[in-house]
């Protein structure tokens, strides 16, 4: 990524990195967690420890320094990101339902909190 300020000297073999939207590589690497295995003359070579798609685990790909964030950041698997998004939507719907029930006096505030907790616990299973 242009203007990120990262150069090859920011990386060393063994560093844990996260691939952000690559500027000139396939987007299917976006969000992957990896480990720096070598450093070339222009690119950092990364082994995908937990790739965005499981079939790319263990693959080595090369990236410009600006396409990498230090450390393993966020949820790497696309399927997990989708599940997280759906869970967030379900939690929001539950909170809205409790809010409506509170507004019309069907439940008490304590009951509303208990319902939200039960719903969140249910979604974690």
Describe what is shown at a glance.
The protein is α+β, with helices and mostly antiparallel strands and 125 residues long.
Written account of the structure:
The chain is of the alpha+beta class and 125 residues long. It has helices spanning 78-103, 109-124, and strands at residues 16-19, 33-39, 44-50, 60-63, 68-70. The radius of gyration is 21 Å and the shape is elongated. 16% of the residues are buried. It has a 5-stranded antiparallel β-sheet, with no helix packed on it. Strand 2 (33-39) and strand 3 form a beta hairpin. It has 2 domains: 8-70, Roll (SH3 type barrels); 78-124.
List the helices and strands and how they pair.
Blueprint: E1 16-19, E2 33-39, E3 44-50, E4 60-63, E5 68-70, H1 78-103, H2 109-124
Antiparallel strand pairs: 1-2, 1-5, 2-3, 3-4
Helix pairs in contact: 1-2
Name of the CATH first level of the largest domain: Mainly Beta
Tell me the span between the first and last alpha carbons.
39 Å
Radius of gyration: 21 Å
Q: What percentage of residues falls in helices of 4 or more residues?
A: 25-40%
Average pLDDT: 91
* Structural class category: alpha+beta
Q: Under CATH, the topology of the largest domain is which?
A: SH3 type barrels
Largest sheet, in brief, is: 5 strands, antiparallel
Number of helices: 2
Strands ordered across the widest β-sheet: 4-3-2-1-5
Order of helices and strands: EEEEEHH
Number of strands: 5
How many structural domains can be distinguished in the coordinates?
Answer: 2
Shape: elongated
Low-confidence parts: none
Strand content is 15-25%
């Amino acid at each position: 990524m242009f203007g990120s300020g990262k150069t090859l000297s920011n990386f060393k073999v063994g560093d844990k990195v996260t691939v952000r939207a690559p500027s000139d590589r396939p987007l299917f690497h976006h969000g992957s967690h990896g480990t720096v295995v070598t450093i070339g003359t222009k690119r950092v070579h990364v082994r995908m420890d937990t790739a965005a798609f499981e079939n790319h685990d263990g693959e080595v790909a090369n990236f410009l320094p600006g396409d990498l964030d230090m450390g393993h950041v966020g949820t790497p698997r696309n399927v997990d990101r989708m599940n997280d998004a759906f869970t967030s939507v379900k939690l929001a719907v539950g909170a809205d339902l409790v809010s409506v029930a509170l507004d019309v006096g069907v439940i008490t505030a304590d009951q509303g909190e208990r319902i939200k907790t039960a719903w969140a616990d249910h979604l974690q299973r």
